[in-house]
Amino acid sequence: MNSFKKLAIVFGLAIVATSCQNERERNYQYMPNMYESVGYEAYGEADFLPNKSEAMLPPANTINRGWLPYEIENSPEGKELSRLQSSPLDSMNVEANLAKGGQLYTIYCAICHGDKGDGQGTLVKREKILGVPSYADPVRNLTVGSTYYTIHYGLNSMGSYASQMNTEEMWQVSEYVMKLKQDLTK
Question: Which UniProt keywords apply (predicted)?
Answer without folding.
Answer: Heme, Iron, Metal-binding
